[in-house]
Each structure stands twice: as C-alpha cells, then as structure tokens.
Specification:
With 245 residues, this protein is an alpha/beta fold. It has one domain (5-236): Rossmann fold. The protein is 41% helix and 15% strand.
Length: 245
C-alpha cells in the first residue's frame, strides 16, 4: 500500500478503525472519516504513534452535501484518493409489521444511499488501478428475520458493486465487495460475551464469532494490487456462516 491514499468511512470504531490501522501499517496514507471527531482523533494518534500518516475528516455521511468537501479535504492533506473503503453503516432490528418508514429510510440512507454517493464521488476522481471496496454483510446473501431494512440495503450494495465494476472497468478502476459475518465490536461485545449469543455462534461452522483482525488479510487483498484482476466480486469472510441455513 506504499504510496497509496485511502479514504475509510466509519473509521472511528469497529471494522473501519481496524481497516484504517492495517492500511496505514502497510504504507498507505489514510483519511479517517466518521461522525465522532474525538474517537477519530484518538485512532489517528494511535496510528501516528506507530509511524502511520493519517488525516481526520469528520462528517456525517447522511449529510450528502459534505461528501465532496470531505474528499477534497482528504486530498488536500494526503494527495489523490486511490482507495475508497465504503464501510460506514448502521443497523436495526424490527419485524416488517413494526418497521416504520422512517426507520427503513434511515438505514437505507446510511447503508446504501450514502455509499452510492461516496462511490460516485470517488469514481469521478479515480484513475487506472484505483480501487473501491464496498462493505456489505452476509445478510445480503442470506435472509434473517427482523433485519429487512439492513438486509435490503446490503443486498443493494452487492448489486451496486457489480454495476460499478462494469461501468468503471474501462477506466481501470476496480470495485469489489467485502461481506463480513458477525464480528465483535464495541457495540456488540457485551452481547457476544453473554449466553444469549450462544445459539447464533453455534451456527458458525468454525465455532466462533469473528474478531476485527480476522479481516486484515481481506482488506489488504481487496485494497491492493494483489487483487488486480478481480472486480465486481464479493469476498465473504464469515467462518462459514453463509453455509448454515
């Protein structure tokens, strides 16, 4: 990743924070994008303490008018963006009969609309060998009750990835998708430490839930020239959970 500039959304915690750390540790200059400036600054300090080069770009992806200025700010500080990691997302559980239109729209706005707008903005700036990595979920590929909005949004990400790959291939820009399974983050650590999570974990063939560092190889592969002949594809990293219907 040496010489590359990566723009990572949702970089204040969880997978996004880990993606930023890994890309920086492997030579990329990284823009940390997210809503929580204090958390972003703390992550930036950690990366800098390890010799990495980062820039904090705090904005809410739901504020669509801020997308282009945020990318402008990253490029002014670090140089042209070569890698977009479209990771920001939210979730929420409700039966369809109880799911309000407002809740449906909020999840689609963050998980699909903003991702589309970020990809569109990045694609206007990118040149040959640049990369977009979208982050969906195994719930884009397998149904789960009470997760209609999230699942539909992530399924949209899957198909958008394929369309973008078709449209940007001639310019040499690659677009791929990472579909994580369940992974322990600060938001769900208490749940996965409890007995309530045992039935879900028991479904996973490898017998455990993912940790953020389980995705280090995947993000490096998709973001680097190691995947130079791969576009429009989905890389599933889930301990085999997708197999357990």
């Amino acid at each position: 990743m040496t010489g590359k500039v990566a723009f990572v959304t949702g970089a204040s915690s969880g997978l996004g924070a880990r993606f930023a750390e890994v890309l920086a540790a492997n030579g990329a200059r990284v823009a940390l994008a997210g809503r929580r400036r204090d958390a972003l600054e703390a992550r930036a300090d950690l990366i800098r303490s390890r010799g990495g080069t980062v820039e904090v770009v705090d904005f809410d992806v739901r504020d669509h008018a801020r997308i282009a200025p945020a990318m402008d700010a990253a490029e002014a500080a670090l140089g042209p963006v070569n890698v977009l990691v479209n990771n920001a997302g939210i979730s929420g559980a409700a039966k369809v009969t109880d799911l309000t239109l407002a809740a449906w729209r909020e999840i689609l706005d963050v998980d699909l609309d903003a991702l589309f707008l970020l990809a569109r903005e990045a694609s206007k700036r990118m040149t040959r060998s640049d990369v977009i990595v979208n982050v969906s979920s195994i719930l884009a590929l397998r149904p789960k009750a009470q997760m209609a909005a999230y699942s539909v949004a992530k399924a949209g990400v899957e198909h958008l990835t394929r369309v973008l790959a078709l449209e940007l291939g001639e310019a040499g820009v690659r677009v791929n998708n990472l579909a994580p399974g369940y992974v322990v983050t600060g938001m769900n650590a208490e749940y996965f430490a409890s007995e309530a999570s045992r039935p879900l974990v028991a479904e996973i063939p490898l017998g455990r839930v993912g940790q953020v560092d389980d995705f280090d190889g995947a993000i490096l592969y998709l973001a680097s020239d190691a995947s130079r002949f791969m576009t429009g594809a989905t890389l599933v990293v889930d301990g085999g959970h997708i197999l357990a219907f």
